[in-house]
Give the backbone structure.
Amino acid sequence: MSHLFGNGAYYAPDLTKAWLDPDWEGWQAVTGADTREGAMVKFLMDPEQYRTWTRTMPNLGITEAEAQAVVAYLKWMAAVDTNGFPPNFNQIAQKR
Amino acid sequence: MYRAQTLALKYFAAAITFFGVMTITGLLSSYYYLNPEFLFGILPFNIMKILHINTLVIWLLMGFMGSIYWFLPGELGRVTVGIRAAEVLFYVFCAAVAVVAVVFIFVQYGGSNEATLWLINQGRKYVEAPRWAALGIVVVMVVFAYNVIGTAIAARKTTGIITVLMIDLIPLILLYLIAFPASETCRLTYSGGGGSSISGSRPPGRF
């Protein structure tokens, strides 16, 4: 569905820099989570409840520990120097 | 007609069938882009995409094998060695592909453990098939290579085409063995850490 480094199933957004997405601040309020990590975990465990787009992420039935592992992985992924990739991500971040 | 050529026609029929499945699942995958609610909660886009791409790999492989079974007797002028095993494996191959497809459609996901990699889905682009199926394809390819090389040895002759084919069959056998990581660091090392694991800067596992 989603992809990393532009490689994947191309249906959902590229998640290489998902951890840095400024939208998570708003999602903290929606999910009632104390931290950005917590908001991401809540989203990953019940994506159907937090619909953001016409293409909804399916519920993969992952446990809380697995969701935390995914968030940790995305944090590590966001730390990779991708030389500006994905190209539109920085523009989105600057606009806000 | 040689027995290998009868088998070739079976492979051709199977390849055409999987080509049809590839076309249908490809069209359905494109329909998700028009109607994102399509089959929501029943069959997600990524499973449809896996079916589309994996049946593509299978029909190409079966078409390739069928065409070789077709020209092998003519090329070497003799009956194919080990054709009985090849005939049995054709049905095993078709049944295995069907089982993998059924598991993709009805099971879809597994937990983060080794059993998922062995039985459900490896989650690797283009080679999502579980490890047991990867091993099964290796067995089919070994028998296929035995048919080609054994027939050439029994006929005590070879041609340019057959020689190139024999060399190319070696990487074809090895291709699906990349399902098995060579080093310990490639293995799934998630250790099931508690809630505190995400507050640090390092993710769980080995890096």
About this structure: The longest strand of chain A covers residues 3-4.
